[in-house]
């Protein structure tokens, strides 16, 4: 089925910042759309998000140039192409851009069209998107944020995400029930302490604490008060987003006015895993601290998931280098870090082939588009990270998995934390 046209408009993300929505229309009138999310704690090696940079317009954040690229060069390049050939389409967009990081046309322009084409292709076949993207049937283990910090909460606490994973729930729906209970109990705990102060960018509570360790204590209290055993029923998952803490060769925890050498910081990560019921840590070390990453993995890689986000930026070359160097055992997958659907699918497959775990992820600036829910199921990634359990841009994804679960009926599969075994991770 041939593509008739591609167009785009400026819409707004969950932080109220401009972003790109593209629409691809096929010759038979079927349409698909794609909305691009946006990060705040971005990695240096990500594809480029093109913003206009004119302080007079939307504080420099408008995306009209990206939109004009979609409606001009990109529209001309995709018109007449077969929408079922996603690889060919994405390659044409990569070639058209001609830069290693999509900085000419903008990864936001390219990705919006790539996603819209995938949506249109599925719609043209009368399929749900997850079938069009690969047809997997494995529902993901949800990773849900309880406390938000770092750049998503004005750095009130240093660590960016304090999340939970329901380790023993037998289905996706039951995993959501467990996380629902912990999320709302955490609000009770914070209210009682007089510390409830709204939610951070991804819907997690925004606490005021004076030590990072105090957050663990509050989280453990919430898990217990919700009726679960920490570490057995519910595990803690962290995104340290350590690139944001790394300054002039040292890791800085501003909350405690302490700074660490890379060796000291990796020891701190290991000691946290020894002290608290932590089952997963994302970006424990800064993006290019390959040595630090290796140290963490050799100490705890057998019992804790170690996820590279800024470290890999969904980039095949970086994932390959990490696999060879043994720096992690999981890869965070974000479409807009790399900029096309095809490259994202390749990154997932490469991760799985290495015996590592892909974790499909939203961004801190999200939209109502639930593409990643389909991507997680289609590729049998096994894990999905969307932020917290509030705000509609987050719930759109959790709810979409519930719909997919229903669509799949008896074909739906769920491994929960059993997915960790694929990477040889044995939780204690
Ligand atoms: C991350 C993401 C999502 P951002 O660091 O994993 O939590 O944040 O989109 O700001 O990079
Ligand atoms: Mg991260």
Give a brief outline of the structure.
With 428 residues, the protein is α/β, with parallel strands linked by helices. Helices cover 38% and strands 18% of the residues.
Say which CATH homologous superfamily of the largest domain is assigned.
Enolase-like C-terminal domain
Radius of gyration: 21 Å
- Content-based structural category: alpha/beta
Shape: globular
Strand order of the largest sheet: 5-6-7-11-12-13-14-15
Q: Tell me about the biggest sheet?
A: 8 strands, mixed, barrel
Query: How many independent structural domains?
Result: 2
Helix content: 25-40%
- Could you say which small molecules are bound to this protein? 2-phosphoglyceric acid, magnesium ion
Give the beta-strand count.
Answer: 16
Number of helices: 13
Taking pLDDT < 50 over at least 5 consecutive residues as the criterion, the unreliable ranges are none
């Amino acid at each position: 089925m041939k593509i008739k046209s591609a167009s785009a408009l400026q819409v707004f993300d969950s932080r109220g910042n401009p972003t790109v929505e593209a629409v691809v229309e096929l010759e038979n009138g079927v349409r698909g759309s794609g909305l691009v999310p946006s990060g705040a704690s971005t990695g240096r090696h990500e594809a480029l998000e093109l913003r206009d940079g004119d302080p007079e317009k939307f504080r420099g954040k408008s995306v009209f140039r990206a939109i004009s690229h979609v409606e001009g060069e990109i529209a001309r390049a995709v018109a007449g192409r077969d929408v079922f050939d996603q690889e060919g389409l994405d390659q044409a967009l990569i070639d058209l851009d001609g830069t290693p990081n999509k900085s000419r046309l903008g990864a936001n322009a390219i990705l919006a069209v790539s996603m819209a084409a995938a949506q249109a292709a599925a719609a043209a076949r009368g399929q749900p998107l997850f079938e069009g993207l690969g047809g997997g049937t494995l529902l993901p283990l949800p990773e849900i944020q309880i406390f938000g910090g770092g750049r998503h909460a004005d750095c009130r606490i240093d660590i960016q995400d304090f999340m939970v994973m329901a380790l023993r729930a037998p289905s996706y729906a039951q995993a959501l029930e467990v996380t629902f209970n912990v999320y709302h109990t955490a609000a009770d705990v914070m209210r009682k302490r007089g510390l409830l102060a709204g939610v951070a960018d991804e819907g997690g509570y925004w606490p005021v604490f004076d030590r990072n360790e105090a957050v663990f204590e509050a989280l453990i209290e919430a898990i217990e008060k919700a009726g679960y055993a920490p570490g057995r029923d519910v595990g803690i998952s962290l995104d340290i987003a350590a690139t944001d803490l790394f300054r002039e060769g040292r890791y800085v925890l501003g909350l405690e006015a302490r700074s660490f050498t890379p060796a000291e910081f990796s020891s701190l990560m290991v000691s946290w895993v020894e002290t608290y019921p932590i089952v997963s840590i994302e970006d424990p070390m800064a993006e290019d601290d390959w040595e630090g990453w290796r140290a963490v993995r050799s100490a705890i890689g057998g019992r804790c998931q170690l996820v590279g986000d800024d470290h890999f930026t969904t980039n095949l070359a970086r994932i390959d280098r990490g696999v060879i160097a043994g720096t992690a055992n999981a890869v965070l997958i974000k479409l807009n870090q790399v900029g096309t659907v095809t490259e994202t699918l390749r990154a997932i497959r490469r991760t799985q082939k290495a015996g590592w775990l892909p974790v499909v992820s939203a961004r801190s600036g999200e939209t109502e588009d639930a593409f990643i829910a389909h991507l997680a199921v289609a590729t049998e990634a096994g894990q999905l990270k969307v932020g917290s359990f509030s705000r509609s841009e987050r719930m759109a994804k959790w709810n979409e998995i519930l719909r997919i679960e229903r669509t799949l009926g008896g074909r739906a599969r769920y491994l929960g934390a059993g997915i960790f075994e694929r990477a040889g991770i044995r939780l204690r």
